[in-house]
Amino acid sequence: MTHQELKGSVKIAMKNRELDKLSVLRGLMAAATNELVAKGRKPDEELSEEDVMTLIRRGARQRKDSIEQFEKGGRADLAEHEKTELTILEAFLPTQMSEEEIRPIAQTKAKEMGIIDNTKTNQLMGVLMKDLKGKADGTVVKRVVESLFQ
């Protein structure tokens, strides 16, 4: 998703009176502006498509963390709101790979790197995350890597 597409989505959400979606998208726009300022650029400039996707991923990760915390705290009402926002954000992200899709890639990469036990799992994780950037959730990759050497 490009910065322009994000702006267009805000307009569409306003026209369709999709209040939850509008709230999430406005939050992304604010995060985009903050990112631009943090990078020393003007707030009216545009982020690259990769930077916008990073913001969306970050927002999704924050929602997942919030859901977990709210559920631990017995606040199902707040967790439901976060789940709604997470669903909206995930619609803008590419489909993430499953454990079954990641496992053969991880096994092949471990063989290539000569990793036969859990002493170098951090190196394997680093290489896999670089290769699967944007395609797989880090927690899922970590779970797969850990299961390879049990």
What would your notes on this structure say?
The longest helix is centred in the middle third of the chain and has 24 residues, at 49-72. The chain starts with a helix and ends with a helix. The chain has helices at 3-15, 19-38, 49-72, 76-90, 99-113, 121-131, 138-148. It has seven helices and no strands. The protein folds into two domains: 3-90, Hypothetical Protein Yqey, Chain: A, domain1 (Orthogonal Bundle); 99-148, Arc Repressor Mutant, subunit A (Orthogonal Bundle), CATH 1.10.10. The radius of gyration is 18 Å and the shape is globular.
Offer a quick outline of the entry.
The protein has 150 residues and is an all-alpha fold. It has helices at 3-15, 19-38, 49-72, 76-90, 99-113, 121-131, 138-148. It has two domains: 3-90, Uncharacterised protein YqeY/AIM41, N-terminal domain (Hypothetical Protein Yqey, Chain: A, domain1, Orthogonal Bundle); 99-148, Arc Repressor Mutant, subunit A.
Whole-number total of structural domains: 2
Taking the sheet with the most strands, its summary is:
none
Helical/strand content category: mainly alpha
CATH superfamily of the largest domain: Uncharacterised protein YqeY/AIM41, N-terminal domain
Return the average pLDDT rounded to an integer.
Answer: 90
What is the distance, rounded to the nearest whole angstrom, between the alpha carbons of the first and last residues? Answer: 39 Å
* Amount of beta strand: under 5%
The H/E string reads HHHHHHH
Per CATH, the class of the largest domain reads Mainly Alpha
**CATH architecture tag of the largest domain:** Orthogonal Bundle
Query: What is the CATH topology assignment of the largest domain?
Result: Hypothetical Protein Yqey, Chain: A, domain1
Q: How would the global form be characterised?
A: globular
Give me the count of strands: 0
Percent helix among the residues? over 70%
